[in-house]
Amino acid sequence: MTFLVDLHLHTYYSDGSFSPIEVIEKAAQKGLKAIAITDHDYFTYTPSLANYAKLLGVELMTGIELSCIDETTKRKVHLLVYGLNENHEHIKALTTPFRKQVKTQRLKMIEALQQKGFAINDNDVKPFTKGLIYKQHIALALEKLGYGHYQDLYSLYFKGEHSLEKQFPITYIPIKKAIEAALKDGGIPILAHPRAYRTFEQIPKYISWGLKGVEISHPSYRDGDLEKVLIYPLLHTGGSDFHGDYNLSSLRQIGHYGIDLETYQQLKGEIKQ
Fold this sequence. Notes:
Elements: E1 5-9, H1 20-29, E2 34-37, H2 47-55, E3 59-61, E4 63-70, E5 75-82, H3 89-115, H4 122-125, H5 135-144, H6 150-158, H7 164-167, E6 173-174, H8 175-184, E7 188-191, H9 203-208, E8 213-217, H10 225-230, E9 235-238, H11 261-269
Parallel strand pairs: 1-2, 2-3, 4-6, 7-8, 8-9
Antiparallel strand pairs: 4-5, 5-7
């Protein structure tokens, strides 16, 4: 089944492998009617991209995925925000310093790999990204340099208790501040994939802070999860969490997860014009 609306897609401006144009074209080829590019902590949407998508019969909604932390549970939380105004100054006030942290962290990761004997530098990684360096880009660069297969390298150095990410921790955006900033900038804050970061029990708290919706269709969902979110009077979104070649699972292909047009119209109806 292919959904007509996929509101969770990534490009090479964060940790995806394709350009925004390529993502739009792939969505059009599959017959989708609406999409959102939700790069991590980066606002990829432009009017020219929206116009190009329209020519192909696809509506491009504004979107971003914020990398957050629940300061009570100390767990990561991802917040999707749709319908942001053009300036979104309150969101930028959060993402700008955060992205500086990420840039420093990734350079430290590369330095740590150099100390382990890998002949790699940031110039080896830059061809794979148009924005910040992400873990996927470093693993791919290592593969291209002949140090092994991408998945093995990613698992060895960027997952688990001994990952380079844990060696160089960063401070994520507090989820309460992210929700408040989204609302100030005219956006609709949506809790992303609650299964992935085990945030089901925190939903009432997030609603009290202004959360407007929850992602109900995502590859991470398991049996019984949907019932945990449908009990709340929230807007619904969904998407494949597409990353291109960095995740070749059939579950994460454009349109494999998403929402129908009626649900999409309900979301659009809440966006301030």
